[in-house]
Amino acid sequence: MEIVSDPGPRRPWPELLSDHRPVLVLPADPGRLPVPEDGWADRDTAPAPGTDPNSGWSAVLDGYWLTVRRPSGTVWFDGETAATREWIRSVRAHGTLLLITGPFTNVFDFWPAAATGQLFFLTTPIRLADGP
Fold first, then answer.
1. Considering the entire predicted model, what is its pTM?
2. Of 52, 57, 87, 126, which has the maximum CB count within 10 A?
3. How far, in Å, CA of 110 to CA of 112, rounded?
4. pLDDT, tens digit, for every residue of 65-121?
5. H or E segment at 27?
6. Minimal CA–CA distance to 8: which of 105, 78, 75, 77?
């Protein structure tokens, strides 16, 4: 994953893994904490990328607007993404989205959080609003 620009404080940014699986990196926000009981994993418990998504979660991408729901059906994230056409094609092709969050508020805080093992991961099924 290569992070090339800063989308601004607390704004998520889309990335692609080396195998072109879509990732959304979400800075810390008090309204969307990663709760382990909801399926979030840390560096010690994270499954390998590309494993089965957490079936309790769901995500819908409508243009550039993404809504992610917890297993309870409540909204965990609802907002705009800086998605590129390539990222959207990747979402369509894979049907899953890896969410990454942790104690960082912008792109410059991400690497220190990653280096100290403070990131949380969750893979969710995702669909495009205009198709399968």
1. 0.87
2. 126
3. 6
4. 999 999 999 999 999 999 999 999 999 999 999 999 999 988 888 999 999 999 999
5. none
6. 105
CA-CA distance, 14 to 24, in Å (whole number)? 4
Residue 84 has which token pair? 């590129």
Contact between residue 99 and residue 121 where contact means Cβ atoms under 8 Å apart = yes
Residue matched to tokens 């969050």: 101
Q: d(Cα 78, Cα 60) in Å, to the nearest integer?
A: 10
Assess contact for 124 and 47: CB atoms under 8 A.
no
Q: Tokens at residue 60, please?
A: 């819908």
Largest CA distance in the chain: 39
